[in-house]
Amino acid sequence: MINNEAIEKRLFASELNKNLIGKKVSIAGWVEDVRPLGALIFLTVRDVSGVVQVIFNKSNTSQNVFLTAKSVARQSAIKIYGTVKESKAKVANVEIQAENIQIVSKAQHPLPIDPTGRVGSSLDLRLDSRALDLRNPFTSAIFKIKHIALQSIRKTLLDEKFIEVNTPKIIGQAAEGGANLFSLDYFGKKAFLAQSPQLYKEQLTLSLDRVFEISTYFRAEKSHTRRHLNEFVSVDIEAAFSYKEDVMDILEKMVVKAINDVLNNCKKELKVLNRELEIPKVPFERITYSQAIEDLKGSGLKIKFGEDLNTKALRRLSKRHKDFYFITDWPTSLKPFYIETKKDDDKISESFDLMYGYLELASGGTRVSDREKLEKRLMYCGLDPKNFSEHLKTFSWGMPVHAGWGLGLDRFVMFLTGMKNIREVVLYPRDRFRLTP
Ligand code: AMO
Predict the structure, then answer these.
(1) Full-model pTM
(2) Fewer CB within 10 Å of terminal CB in the chain, N or C?
């Protein structure tokens, strides 16, 4: 039908502007609205970048084209060919005076959800129809912000001389303790899905020096909360010749730059989400675990040294620490075997968590880089060093002191977008009750 396609490259809604007035263009997208008005038909066409008003005038188009436009089902995929005109509407500078319409794919009604968002749907229903839900500018804004944040994160890490790596996700040995592993049959052997790249990223520091990985990890946690998923994306770094303070500084820098980049590149998206994002104060506040339990004592909540800070405690703490803050120096007993202990007190570890409100965004620390000590730490954590022989052997090859962290990307995007449920910011979330779509 439309045979000028080869001449006219398809334009996105956001590319149409006053400089194109009088030019013939083609656009493609989905029909959001059809409003026939006598000899005119107004079509609102949405693509991923925005909306365009398209006008069919009975006197300028063939009867066939006019009738096709009039009867097109909402949300069908279409192509339009026409001339760019100045628009009288306040919302846009230009519109298209259509000459032709091609229905690429008809939408079958009733659709499971209304992607314009005019008719609200529950999150569950939206997730069941996620691909369609993403046509809603509210939902797509979240993923555009995630995309910009990811680009920004990569840029910071590359500038800091990190190399991007990919480590195995099918593994033979747990990295984070054995309780929450998904296991699978690997040609007759028991294998697991990686909970983190911890052991690999540490090993890589002895040759590549500074590495980072952005990937999906798996935790067989039963907890069904608004901030846990069984599959989540983590940004992991590991740096040779570094201590926790060095990598905390990198994390702080990366977070601030990502917020800046989202503020500068996602104005429209933040507006759609009604999110007022602010650049945090630097340096982020740093309190020790012991200070945190003192703070909590002051607010009437008693936590014994060695007890984890549960949600109630973290919520209480977030009343005092409103912005980003680090909790450092956790009891060794609360941290994994690979975390280094203080030189003068092995009950306290060289660790940190990055918090925003009650949300733990990242955790990390200085690692044990001495083989003997690592064996002792494994045993202290009830693990058998024999099962870690592949990992331990690398510690005899000139392992440098090293430090790193893992940042939960989805949780960070919850902060950026102001979403309260992690499922909002993950395309196809996996929780205990959801394995589809
Ligand atoms: P940790 O287990 O604390 O540390 O994980 C790092 C960060 O990942 C995010 N996260 C999750 N997000 C969503 N759903 C989950 N089930 C989930 N579990 C964790 C959190 C958390 O802060 N190897 C260490 C990191 C390191 O020391 O380098 C680790 O995995 O935001």
Answers:
(1) 0.96
(2) C
pLDDT one-digit tens code per residue, 48-106: 999 999 999 999 999 999 999 999 999 999 999 999 999 988 778 999 999 999 999 99
User: Residues near ligand 1 with C-beta < 6 Å?
Assistant: 176, 196, 198, 219, 221, 228-229, 232, 234, 236, 360-364, 404-406, 408, 410-411
pLDDT 10s digits, 157-192:
999 999 999 999 999 887 777 679 999 999 999 999
- For 132-425, CATH number out of 3.30.360.20, 1.20.1250.20, 3.30.930.10, 3.40.50.2300 equals 3.30.930.10
Total length of the chain: 437
In CATH terms, is domain 6-105 a member of 3.30.870.10?
no
Reading the block at residue 407, the tokens are 């940042």
Token reading at 10? 């398809």
Mutate to test the pocket of ligand 1, among 411, 414, 422, 432 (most ligand atoms within 8 A of CB): 411
Q: Where in the chain is the domain with CATH 2.40.50.140?
A: 6-105
The active-site residue, picked from 227, 391, 402, 423, is 227
Could you tell me the two tokens for 418? 């102001």
Helix (H) or strand (E) holding 265: helix 244-265
Residue nearest to ligand 1 atom 18, measured at CA? 228
How many CA atoms, within 13 angstroms, populate the side-chain half-sphere of residue 406? 18
